[in-house]
Structure formats: C-alpha cells, structure tokens
Structures
1.
Amino acid sequence: MRSELFERLSIPKLMAHCVLPGTVSMVASSLYIVVDGMFVGHYMGHDSLAAANLMWPLLGILFAIADMIAYGSSVQISMFLGRRSRLSASRTFSFCVWVLFGFSAVAGLLGYFLTEPFLMLVGAGEDTARLGKEYIISYCVSAPLVMLFFATDSYLRVCGRQKFSMWLRVFTSLFNLLLDYIFIVLLRQGIWSASFTTCVTLSLGTLIAFYPFLRRRMDVEFVRGRIRFKQFTRLCYNGVTELLQSVSGSVFMLVANTMMLSLGGTVAVAAHAAVLYIDSVAIRVLMGTVNSLQPALSYCYGAALYARVAAVEKWLLSLCALLFLLTAGPLIIPYYAADGDEEFIIMGRRCIVIFAFTYLTGWVEICLHGFLTALDSPSRAFVLSLCRALLLPLPLLLLLKHCYGLDGVWSTHAVTCAVAALLSVALTLPFWRNKISSRLPLPS
C-alpha cells in the first residue's frame, strides 16, 4: 500500500512527500479564487463583488456538512490503513462518498429556495439581491459534484496520492482561469458566468479524481456495505470542528456583512471581499501545510508509532503572512477595482492593513487544532473550534464595532486569533503529555 510510506520514509522525506504537494494544491486552488474576484470586481464593479461575497456565507453553510464528513472520515480511514484493515477503510470511504452525494443534492435544492430570504435577511438592495441570485444558481445545480471535489483531496492524500491531488488542483485552477477569461473578459458575460465556470471546472475535477478509485488502483476502493451508526457519529464528531468553523464563519460573515452594509454600503463589503480573496492565498498555504500532515499523523497514531507522531508534529512550523499582506496587499487591491473607483481602493487598502495582523498569532490555533483532529481528539478540538469560531468572534465584533466602527469590524479577526492562540496552547499541552509523551520518550 502506498500509505505505508507514512511509516517508512524519514521525517524530512515525509515532509517533502506530504507538505509540498499539499501546499502547492492549496495555493493553486486559491489562485483561481483570487483572479476570479479580480475579474468580477474589475469588469463588473464593486456591486457584483459585494453580491458574490454576500452569497458565500450561505454557500459556506451548505458546504460545511460535506467538509465535516470528508475530514472526519479521512482520519478514520488513515487509522484503519495504519492497522492494516483495508476492508474497514474501504467500507468507510464508500459509505461516506454516497452520504456526501445524497446530502449535496438536497443541499443544492435547499440553497436554491433559501437564496432570496437569505439576501433579504442581510439587508441587500434589489440590484444586489438580483446579482446574488444569478451567482448561486450554478452552485445549486451542480452541488453534488462540486461538494465532492473538496472531499477528494482528503481521500487522495490518505492513499498517498499527494502528487496526483496536487496536479489535479493545478489543472482545475488553470482551466478555471481560462474559462473566466473567455466568459468574463472576452464575452463580457454577467456575474452568473463567474460561478458557472467554477462549477464546470470543479465538476470535471471530481470525475477525474474518482477515476483511479473506480479502477481499483488505490489503497481504498468502492465496496458494498454500511458502517456502524456509532462509527459514523464518531467520525462526524471528529469532523464537527470543521462544520462548526464553517457554520460559525458563515454566521460571523452574515453579521459582519450586515454591519458593513450599514456603516459603509456595498463598497465596504466589496473592499472586505477583496481582502479575503488576497488572504485566501496566505491562509491556504498555512492550511495546506497542516492538512497535508493529517494522513501521516493519523496513520502513525493508528499504527501505535507514537514517537513518530511526536517527530512529525515537531515539524509543524509557523507560517506568518503578516509581511505579505502589509506590503503586497495594498498593491493588489487596485486590480479588484473598476477603472476610476478610488473610494474602493482607499477603503480596501485600509482594510488589508488592519486585517494583516491576523497572522501575527493566527497560525498557532490552526496548527494545534489540526494536530488534535488528526489524532482523533474531537472533544478538545471541538472546544477550541467552538471558542475560535463562535464564542469569541461575535462578542468581540459587537464590542469593537461599538468602539471603533468600521475599523473595529475589520480588526475582529486579529483580536480573535490572539485570544484563540492562548486557548489552543492551554488545551493541547495536557493532551500531548497524556497521549504521547507518557507512552514513548520524545525523539531527540
């Protein structure tokens, strides 16, 4: 099995095998998102950019349960492979893929009917609501294939196919950029084309990703049978932190967008959206590093290689994007603006300077949360996610907005990350001592 490389490779080679392809995959995925936002903002104006940003909280909620099942099941699959239980791993994989497909179809249907009430809830104007409805239709129609695409990365990585996953994401990113250029720049189509091109690309990516599974060339394959309800609830519980982060992030964006609409109008929402597009590159580098190590950590933990778990974890280095956002961010903002939209440029540059300080401490919580999830410690990971995604941001948002207005809304991310970093260290250190250090001495 290719997954046995997780225990045979030396730690430096394991890092190169896992982290480099995973990070490249995440960066490639973020690049088309960044350029997609540039096309929308530059050729359609900040109203269209704001409409797309207003729809992402709803899309985030629809994708959240799929992320929960995919991430939670990948942890169990890796542990089963570490125990040489290939049939259990394959049964878990097969069952979860079909659950994801069924849920995605229902989610797409619900998303179509909930779009208009959602836009009314956030206070969108008539024109913005119309643009938002045009944007989301493609996602609703192609939801089963689009949502499965994000799960395929986890399943390919647990089978040791990091490079295949990397090149697949590079291909989908480049193909999406080509379609964006054709539909938006050359044909000058509306906002619907931005989501249509993405959905076509991701659907194609899903079909390509599952091809080797269908040909039975992977460590897991499609088999008949179901898993126990207790096992399914366990993997959902382990992945519920991803669900909580997605749903809470969507709730936060819902409240923040409503505040920004009242404080600065659609231009404020669009400026924040541009910053989040730029931020997606930096955050995906960090998330790519952490998520790429999940299969190796889970496999070694399932194989009782506790000293190796400790050795791998020691390589989780901090990635700070503070200088990137402070220096390059203000230079990129104008590419999201229509010609002559100086108000948007000024507001976007101010927003990105404030937002940049998120990365001063944000990497701590991301790394330690990934460690807890990979080693099947859902209770601690859940508590950390609950505080990071829900209990901290909303009270801080209300407080900072009251004290500093629009600048306070934009600074909420940085303040939340600082508090969450302290909490994550407090939750992880006892687990490290009890689960790892007490069984085998840490390697020198």
Note: Residues 9-437 form one domain.
2.
Amino acid sequence: MLEKVTNSLSSIIKTISGKSTITEKNIEEAVEQIKLALLDADVNLRVVRRFVNATIEEAKGEAVLTSVNPGQQFTKIVHDRIVALLGDTKQDLHLKGPDTLSVILFLGLQGSGKTTSAAKLALKLKNQGRNPLLAACDLVRPAAIDQLMVLGEKIGVPVFAERPKGVASAGDAVEVARHALAAAKKGAHDVLIVDTAGRLQVDEAMMAEITAVKKIVDPVETILVADAMTGQGVVDVAKAFDDALSLSGVILTKFDSDARGGAALSLKSITGKPILFVGTGEKPEDLEPFHPERIAGRILGMGDIVTLVEKAQQTIDTQEAEKLQKKMANETFTLQDMLDQIERMSKMGSLQSMLEMIPGMAGQLQNSDIDISALKVQKAIIQSMTLKERSNHLIIGPSRRKRIARGSGTSVGEVNKLIKQFEKMRQTMRKFSKNKGLAGKQLF
C-alpha cells in the first residue's frame, strides 16, 4: 500500500528528523526531495506546488529554526500538510435515523469495483445494526445482477433485482430503482444501496441514466467508486461525475495495490470531495474508513497502530482470548487452536498490510521476505487431520503422517516440521504465560 511514496518520504523524514539543528538550506533541500517524490507518485502538479509553498513558508518560521527539536518540528509540519492533502478529518456517511430510509447511490466507470464495493458497504452497515437492501440497477453489464445477488447471499443482505426483457434501456434502470425504493420502504429497510451501470469512459448516455435514477431515489449520499491504481486520472473522472451529479464522496478501490498514491493525495485538494472508504482486499470485510491522519502516518513510515488494534478487536473475542491464555499456561493448546489463530490472522488482512501499520516497519520488508505461503501449508496440513488428531498430536504416528501428507498435498517432511514447530510453540507459550512479569498482559 503506497510503497513507492512511503519509501521515498519516510527516508527523507528519517534523515532530517535526526538532525539536532537544521538551516533554511536543509529545509529547501528536503522539500525539493519531497516535491520530486510526490511528482514521481503521480500527484497532481497543482497539488504539489501548493504543498511545497505551504511547507516551506511554515518550516522557515522561527518556531522551527529555533526549536529544541527542529527536525521533529519539520516532520510534524510535513505530516500536517499531508493530512490536509488527504482531507484533514475522517468523513462519516450522513445517514438518517434507523426509522427512516437512507438511499446511497453508487456510480463510477466500468471495472472500478462498484458492485463489490456496494456489497462491502452493505456488510459494514449490517454489522453496525442497520438493515440494508441492495438494488441491482446495472442493466448494462451482463453479469452485474448475478454478481450482486451472489455477493448479497454471501453476506446475508437481500438484493432487489428485475431483469429487463430484451436490450436494457435507461428507462428500465429508472423503473428498477423506483421499484427497489418501494420494496425498501415496504420491507422496513433503513438503507438502500443502489448499484448503477458504468461505462468504459464517461459519456452522455451514462450520465443521463444515473441522473434519472438519482431523481427517483433522492439519495443522501452520491458516491463515486474509483480505481486507486489509475493515479491522478481519478481526479478527472471525479470532476466529470461531480459536475453532472454533485458527488458527496469517493470510495477508492484497490488501495492495497496502489504503490504510488497519486489518487489519494490529489483527490480532495482538486475536487473538494472527501475519500470515505478504501478497498483493501477482495473479501467482503476489506473496506476501511478513510482516516487522513492515519494514512499520513503510514506514508511517513510512522505506522498506524490504532487501525491495527481496531482490526484485532474485530476478530478477537475477549472470552476466547482468556480461554487461550489458560490453555497456554496449562499446555492444553492444541493444533485446532493453532488453526483457529491462523484463520483469525487471515481475517485481519494480509501480513504485509499489518506490518505496514507498525511504526518503522513500512518499506523494511518486501513480500519476498514474508513467507505467507507457509501459513497456507500449515493450514492445509491441520485441516487434513481428524478432530482427534488435532486435539492430541501425540497420536500422530508414521502412518497417520503419511495419510495427512497425501490429504494436504504436502510431504511427510512438511508434516513433521509442522508438528515440531507446534511442540516448540507450546513450550514457548508455557514459559511466556508463567513469566510473572508478562502474565496477564495482552497484546490488544
């Protein structure tokens, strides 16, 4: 996530923050390097110019040059400037009360991830106690209705859909939206998320159709879904949609694959529209609220411990954690417990993304340094065991190991390795839990 700009800026910040004294020349050199890093990250030229001018003006002030820690003061200025670029503060959805229907209209180009994002947001709202309904108003892309229905079934959210007879027209989408609105009110839903048709590029037909749909559903949020990997091209798309439909915010998809950051760093300054959420993976849970201050911290290599803790709290149950702690102390931790922990880790997201949230870790480890495949192998081996074997690894003799290796598509050597690692882990856990200085302390 934003590896390119993170590596560049964190290196510059690390260099200057370590200086006990800095001069105007130091500041100019650092800002010049930051400017080049931002341009290389595909940030809009006007945004870069504003950033550079504001940073130099503030950094050359007496508060920095005469400060006890001028390097740290300069770092804070750069951090605050980046936060301002990203949007200052987190923006929430402006939904009505739970007894009143709120409509969210999704729009964007084809392939931007509208349908998937609609389902992700529906799941997030459902988990917050809302009662959402998804409306399949994309009648242009052949598989759009089926895709939304499959996603809706997966997350447990109903989908309203009507298939057109013959070739779909703009009027058909309007009628589906009208009927979906009536169904949402009749079904006592408090949120209706409308997935509309996209095109390969902005055109009049698409804008006319979405304008007509918007007039019918009267949304409280009109959200553009855009691909973060298209860089500052997102800005032009956002401006076009905003001019025609008056956007309320943006969801950036494929944010976890965006190495440059041009879209995120340019969007708010040029369009004035906030980034509401970012897509950080393919799973229904992979939609994060956009916190400008936290993202700025990640970009500068300062990490994002708050988001990491929030992710952990969503997947770790307090009672389960206490049970696990007792098992560690009593040496009753089993291979089934190990499998449960691997699955919990996968729910928190990729190991790479979690490491990026730890201060100082961004850019330090490459994908090749993290043996993610090892966890998948371990999971496959344990899943090939019987419940009895998972609860008592001591009964897994040579013949059982051969069967487990065949069932998991691995070798007996890999099965042996896992069991040895597991036994060593149990010993380490027992020592850890019995250490009076560490006992009772939890990571989260």
Note: Residues 102-301 form a domain with the Rossmann fold fold (CATH 3.40.50.300).
3.
Amino acid sequence: MKKSRFTETQIVAVLKEGEAGVAVAELLRKHGISKQTYFKWKSKYGGASVKDLTRLKELEHENAKLKRMYAELALENTAIKDLLARKL
C-alpha cells in the first residue's frame, strides 16, 4: 500500500480548515491534493480528532498483538492435543 505524504494529524488539520468554511478548491490548491483524495479523507477521518486517531492506532496495535498471541496459543494447544492422542 502506498504511504501517504501526509500524516493523520495533517489530514485532520486540512479537514478542519474545510469545516471552518474555506472553499474546497482553495484547500486542494493550497495543499496540493486531488478532489478524490480530499473526499476520501473526509469519509475516513471526518469528525475525528487527533486524539481519536491516536487511540485508534493504539487499539489496532493491541488487537494485532492479541491476534498473534491467540494464534500461537491455538497452535500450541493443537500440538499438545496431538501429542496426547498419540500417547493414548
């Protein structure tokens, strides 16, 4: 996936400018983004604050960590069950 040249904080700042009443065409020219990009950002980040986005990133990171832990434990559990089935 292509990395954006804008951080989430910058994206939220651009959207806040748009909410403040700055014309969309002016925002696009000022920040060098396309109309599609602006409206994609608006649908994804609209109404979110920097604090919300930071918390969301933390939760996604924690969720990924928990998924890895579960996968490792499930694999270990299966291996133990197989080993016990062979002994009996």
Note: The helical segments are 8-19, 24-31, 35-45, 50-87.
